[in-house]
Amino acid sequence: MKESFTSEANRRRAAAQNRILYSVLALFFVQIGVFFYAWEDALGGHYDRALPFFLLSAACFAANLLFLKRLRALDAPGTEENH
Amino acid sequence: MNETLNRPPAKWREDFPVEWERDNLLTRREFTKFLIAASGVAAAGNGLIALQRSRPRLADFPRLDVAAEAEIPVGGVKLFRYPAENNPAILIRLGEERYVAYMQACTHLACPVTFSAKHGRIECPCHHGVFEAETGAVVSGPPPRPLPKIRLAVENGRVFAEGIEGV
User: Fold this and answer.
1) Handedness of CA B135, B145, B123, B69 (dihedral sign)
2) What pLDDT is recorded for position A1?
3) What is the H or E stretch that residue B149 is in?
4) If you ran DSSP here, which 8-state letter would residue B105 be given?
5) Cys-Cys crosslink for B143: which of A42, B122, B129, B160, Cβ 3.0 to 4.6 Å?
6) pTM
7) pLDDT tens, residue by residue, A40-81
């Protein structure tokens, strides 16, 4: 059990999980910033940047979904990282 | 190593016991999935704001009788609603024949602005934004844009609002 936990494959998988977590976190922070900029604009009655901000936020979310797919692939049996 | 395990628990552990078995630990994987869900919520929020943008605008502003000239002394103000009931506006008499009117919502976070006759400027009490009374331009503070100016006409001793500039 101990050997399996410290195996090279599991270490790589843990590292991959960390990379995904940090990437998702970074994209989420971008989205939070974009949301508050759009919200401030909206409160001031200006919507010029609302659509570009939405597209940027949607792109971040789409990237996050790809990361989710990658995260699930890490857990799937038979994947390289899971050996 | 064995000595460490055989030692009696520290006194503070007795006072503040942590039941690890019953604790719900959050894994990195679960946290990542939670962040992705939150990311979806943030994108949806931006979508809602973008939808507000596509609301129909008032293309033709109505003509509104705001006040009689005699009603407002020089340096005085009158609050009114324009172009709709939920749009507060402020009319300021700067001189005998000089009137200006602006949307009253600060362009920062929509707090209602007030006219300071003492300083001759328009001020937002929330975050200390300051606007020029003559033009509505930002003098200082966080507002990113000037106040939207309301076009006025003075006829037969009455002041009328006829539209909004810069909207």
Assistant:
1) positive
2) 47
3) strand B149-155
4) B
5) B129
6) 0.60
7) 888 777 788 899 999 999 999 999 999 999 999 987 765 544
